[in-house]
């Protein structure tokens, strides 16, 4: 039996409020994270992802109080990321109610952190978040995609596909693949990027960046995504979780 495709609303949080923009620019307020998380659970979300999008850029830890209040109100798995730099950070988030922890910038700076986290807490709690984009002028990688850090603000020149493969070997139990080019644009997922990573990794792959209509969730699943993460379309009522699940079901994909 095939594993059900997960629908995962993402709460990008800055200063305690959910925000959303385009390519992480022009951020607009989208509501209270606890209220939105509760609403999405009631609509049938399979998981909730909470990303403190300015934590790494500002050099601080994820806001634990928001994590605690969110975890108390939902009954589906909660993934938390942003500013996670150490085993202690992971421990605090798990104790605050997170089920999984997403790491991006810190893993680039110290890849051994992935192995340390997996050994101490298990790879089932470790999500490697890969903020990837098509290589801009002056940057070249074998796959044509590079990794960025600090919320997409910093170019690394690291091949995104090679980094996903290395992350899995180091202990990541899941890959969250974020297309920085498609983020907030709502014109569909970067299927070439999904294909490139799917061919090389066997752990669950979550596609992020580009959802604009229910069919986009189907397209991501058709290209091998085990879960589809979205923000803007849910926050602003462009589409709903039931509509996305119905589209997947009609296309023959199992959903919960």
From TrEMBL:
GO terms for molecular function: lyase activity. InterPro entries: Aldolase_TIM, His_biosynth, HisF, IGPS_HisA/HisF, RibuloseP-bd_barrel. It is an enzyme of class 4 (lyase). It is found in: Cytoplasm. Its main location: cytoplasm. The active site is at 12, 131. CDD domains: HisF (cd04731). Its EC number is 4.3.2.10. The keyword Lyase applies. Pathway: Amino-acid biosynthesis; L-histidine biosynthesis; L-histidine from 5-phospho-alpha-D-ribose 1-diphosphate: step 5/9. Pfam families: His_biosynth (PF00977). Keywords: Amino-acid biosynthesis, Cytoplasm, Histidine biosynthesis, Lyase. It catalyses: 5-[(5-phospho-1-deoxy-D-ribulos-1-ylimino)methylamino]-1-(5-phospho-beta-D-ribosyl)imidazole-4-carboxamide + L-glutamine = D-erythro-1-(imidazol-4-yl)glycerol 3-phosphate + 5-amino-1-(5-phospho-beta-D-ribosyl)imidazole-4-carboxamide + L-glutamate + H(+). IGPS catalyzes the conversion of PRFAR and glutamine to IGP, AICAR and glutamate. The HisF subunit catalyzes the cyclization activity that produces IGP and AICAR from PRFAR using the ammonia provided by the HisH subunit. Belongs to the HisA/HisF family. Heterodimer of HisH and HisF. This is Imidazole glycerol phosphate synthase subunit HisF. The lineage of its organism: Bacteria, Bacillati, Actinomycetota, Actinomycetes, Actinomycetales. The gene is hisF.
């Amino acid at each position: 039996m095939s594993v059900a495709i997960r629908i995962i609303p993402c709460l990008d949080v800055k200063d305690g409020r959910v925000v959303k923009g385009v390519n992480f620019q022009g951020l607009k307020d989208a509501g209270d994270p606890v209220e939105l998380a509760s609403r999405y659970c009631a609509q049938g979300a399979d998981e909730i992802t909470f990303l403190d999008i300015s934590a790494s850029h500002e050099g601080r830890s994820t806001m634990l109080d928001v994590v605690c209040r969110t975890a108390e109100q939902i009954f589906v798995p909660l993934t938390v990321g942003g500013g996670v730099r150490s085993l202690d950070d992971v421990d605090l988030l798990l104790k605050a109610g997170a089920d999984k922890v997403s790491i991006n910038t810190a893993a680039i700076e110290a890849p051994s952190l992935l192995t340390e986290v997996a050994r101490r807490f298990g790879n089932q709690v470790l999500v490697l978040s890969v903020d990837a984009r098509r290589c801009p002028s002056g940057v070249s990688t074998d796959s044509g995609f590079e990794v960025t850090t600090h919320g997409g603000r910093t170019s690394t020149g690291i091949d995104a596909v090679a980094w996903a493969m290395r992350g899995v070997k180091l202990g990541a139990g899941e890959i969250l693949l974020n297309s920085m080019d498609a983020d907030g644009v709502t014109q569909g997922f970067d299927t070439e990027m999904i294909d490139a990573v799917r061919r090389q990794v066997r752990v669950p792959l979550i596609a992020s960046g580009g959802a604009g209509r229910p069919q986009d969730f189907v397209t991501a699943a058709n290209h091998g995504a085990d879960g589809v993460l979205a923000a803007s379309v849910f926050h602003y009522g462009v589409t709903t979780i039931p509509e996305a699940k119905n589209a997947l079901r009609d296309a023959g994909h199992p959903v919960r």
